[in-house]
Amino acid sequence: MTEILEIPGAVDIHVHLRQPGDNKAETIASGTRAALLGGFTAICDMPNNPGRPTWSAHRLIEKQRLIRKSAYVPVGLYAGAQPESNNLDQLPAMAKPAIGLKLYSAPTTGSDKDYTAKDFTKIVSAWHESAPAKPIMLHAGQTNLPGLIELIAGKFGHHLHVCHVNASREVELVEKAKADGLPVTCGVCPHHLFKTSHDPLSEGWFARMKPPLARQEEAEKLFELLVNGAIDIVETDHAPHSAGAKWTAENAGGSCWGVPGIEFALPLLLYQMVKGRISRERLIEITSTKPAKIIGLKLSGSTKVTWQMEIHRIGDEKTRLSGSGWTPYLGKLAAGKVKKVVIGKQVLVADGKIMAKTGRLINRGDQL
Length: 368
Ligand code: NCD
Ligand code: ZN
Ligand code: ZN
What we know:
about 20% strand; five-stranded antiparallel β-sheet; globular; binds N-carbamoyl-L-aspartate; binds zinc ion; about 35% helix; eight-stranded parallel β-sheet; alpha/beta
């Protein structure tokens, strides 16, 4: 008999579900199904859908309809705005249905420009006015983070969440802002903890994402900063691209940033817990309590995931993979397979099998 672990459902505030749009590697159904079997009971979807960015209230409503129809776990939706999106007039209408605003100040999938804080002043001001309590999520560049902290958290006193930190230097900037009393948080991705800058040498584009993987020493430092509280949460930045698209980038010299990650984020972290490198309490904080707090989601005691805790190697487990059908974590040691998932009174997974889907949208102030 293997040990059973019951913990609160995890909350992932950084996921790319891709639908609707030109990237067909994922759908709302396939991504939320993988999230559910990965131990997540709520996720939040980013606005950079290739060919169909969430830059208007109309696009948000389109996504809401799709979520109601096909989501296995509750989903929150981010609004997007960029200097190039020219959608200032849409921000007031997007403020209500959105769970937050996402900004890209450096090149990645969906936005290929570098910006300075000045370029975002009008957007931040308009969002702050329309949605003072809803966080601004930032994909920062190497040099523009200090200016954007100053603008968003300093000038407007608005909650800024710095996405996917890959360097201790970024965490230092966040810590300094916190010490000054500014409302700033940050998150780290499993790939920046458990993969390193050496991997692209042998995995090519299958190990390339924005921001890039860190050197071994820096990845170890990030894990320490997560354990000691300097990094607030884990976010997966689940960014699926088809194996074919990654392969084409490798062979034809293209670009294709991002890796899937929601299926095995918890098993990778639970393995660290089993090995005594992170406590159960801290694991719950970084995967559930704190991310829920950032988006203003209230967690009831009855939203729980039951894990069967055997140690295993992540294999080609087709049943648990998301839509892109591959994982950057193949062969890694992990712990835990999801046996049961309950959200409130609804049993979504029993005996490892999906029993129901929620089709539910979440927004700030909601209870799970
Ligand atoms: C993400 C994607 O593919 O949407 N890519 C990535 O490399 N992380 C976008 C992002 O989060 O920067
Ligand atoms: Zn990003
Ligand atoms: Zn992302």
